[in-house]
Amino acid sequence: MNVGIDQISFYVPQMYLDMIDLAQARNVDPNKYLIGIGQEKMAINPQSQDIITLGANAAEKILTAQDKEQIDLVIVGTESSIDESKASAVILHRLLGIQPYARAIEVKEACYAGTAALQMAVNHVRLHPESKALVIATDIARYGLNSGGEPTQGAGAVAMLITKEPRILVIEEKTLALTKDVYDFWRPTNQKYPLVDGPLSNSTYINAFSDVFTAYNQKYQQSLTDYKALLFHIPYTKMGRKALNHLLENVDEAIAKEFIDNYELSIRYSRQIGNLYTGSLYLGLISYLDHVATLKPEDTIGLFSYGSGMVGEFFQAHVVEGYQKHLHTTQNQETLNKRHRLTFAEYETCLNEHLDPSIDQVFTDETRFSIEKVENHIRYYKK
Ligand code: HMG
To answer: What residue numbers bound the domain in which 180 lies?
Structure first.
């Protein structure tokens, strides 16, 4: 029995900062951001959008009434949790109208949590083939004004419906994870922003990919040319390219070019959005599927998931015949094109605002799902 992604979609806040505006304000050569980091735009969320509304706006696009009756597992992967106890999945379960006899949980391990959620959901459906599972990877990546990580911020969510005999992508059972206790990026519970050792985070990422990719191929007796494309967690688009270039150093030029061309297709959306943390790898997957010329079911796609701290995982997948009919390519491009470009002053205001749940307040936001008000430490969502 095949199990995998039956439906997939993303949602990003409808505001962005242009990286040229950031470069001018920071007195930096714009090419450092456009080429050196590889980002053109950075998604910024208003206070009325949090990980719940981003997740709900992503998931609502793909769920039918029948799916909502069949889903019995909702897992949210996030590192931008709004509560130390209550899982965001419980609120999403209600907002999305999913039948009550379901399990709803939130999982954490930096950007890797989206993959942890996906693998748990896939295993759940392998055990219970009549079930459907909803995975939501949702985050707000903020490092703060004038910080080292400032050009690598972003926000958004990816939603995936996991079923047997999926219509888009089969996730194979072959997988390998790698865990190492490293302080490259972490956020103690009293900190608003993560603490980051930028150079260490870059080298840990590259070494983790190199290590797990080599071990995976040894374990399953595969080699580079068995893959059609390699997709990466994309904290900023230069990062995956660095890991890929490292792998391709001594590889035949024509083979290397094909991997690089495919990587370029996978970063088109991320260049316009920035880091989605848990959703980044899957935003790359959507971008790749939306832009690549037809893939064949026998084409193997390798996926590298990375979460600081650190856990990495390499696994593989292949498309299902006719998968293109189930993509939302036009809608995805519209979501990006209709966004509002912030002035630098508006961006600074957004970054200085922090939703304090101890202060009652009301919000106005036209988006399908948004925060309506905060009262008595409870966020009330517009449905
Ligand atoms: P920085 O100090 O601003 O940048 O830090 P830099 O000086 O290292 O320059 C960046 C690149 O721009 C360099 O290229 C420069 O040469 C180039 P590279 O050597 O890397 O190939 N450059 C230029 N290129 C063209 N024209 C120019 C120019 N000037 C310079 N004029 C850093 C950059 C990414 C470290 C910083 O923004 C940061 O700390 N970001 C946050 C951490 C991060 O994203 N790390 C990535 C790996 S960890 C990860 O992926 C996990 C994560 O998603 C979190 C999680 O798991 O939860 C972050």
So the answer is: 172-320
Domain boundary among 271, 305, 320: 320
Report how far ligand 1's centroid is from the alpha carbon of 198 (Å): 7
Whole-angstrom distance, CA of residue 138 vs CA of residue 127: 26
User: Number of folded domains in the chain?
Assistant: 2
Are 30 and 90 in a shared domain?
A: yes
Q: Is the domain of 156 the same as that of 7?
A: yes
- 350 is a catalytic site residue: no
> What is the rounded distance in angstroms from the CA atom of residue 60 to the CA atom of residue 42?
23
**Per-residue confidence of the chain (383 residues) as pLDDT tens digits?**
999 999 999 999 999 999 999 999 999 999 999 999 999 999 999 999 999 999 999 999 999 999 999 999 999 999 999 999 999 999 999 999 999 999 999 999 999 999 999 999 999 999 999 999 999 999 999 999 999 999 999 999 999 999 999 999 999 999 999 999 999 999 999 999 999 999 999 999 999 999 999 999 999 999 999 999 999 999 999 999 999 999 999 999 999 999 999 999 999 999 999 999 999 999 999 999 999 998 999 999 999 999 999 999 999 999 999 999 999 999 999 999 999 999 999 999 999 998 998 999 999 999 999 999 999 999 999 97
Query: Which pTM does this prediction carry?
Result: 0.98
Measured between alpha carbons, how far is residue 365 from residues 38, 41, 362 in Å? Answer: 31, 22, 10
Whether 111 is catalytic: yes
Domain co-membership, 118 together with 190:
no
To test the pocket of ligand 1, the residue of 22, 37, 277 to mutate (highest count of ligand atoms within 8 Å of its CB) is 37
Please state the atom number of ligand 1 nearest to the C-alpha of residue 28: 31
Sign, Cα dihedral of 367, 377, 114, 40: positive
143 is in an annotated binding site: yes
Please state the φ and ψ torsions of residue 38, each to the nearest 5 degrees. 90, 35
Give dist(CA 8, CA 265) in Å, integer: 17
User: Are 153 and 254 contained in the same domain?
Assistant: no
Do 163 and 177 lie in a common domain?
no
Among residues 40, 109, 124, 233, which one is catalytic? 233
Asked which of 293, 320, 347 is the last residue of a domain, the reply is: 320
Residue 79 designated active-site: yes
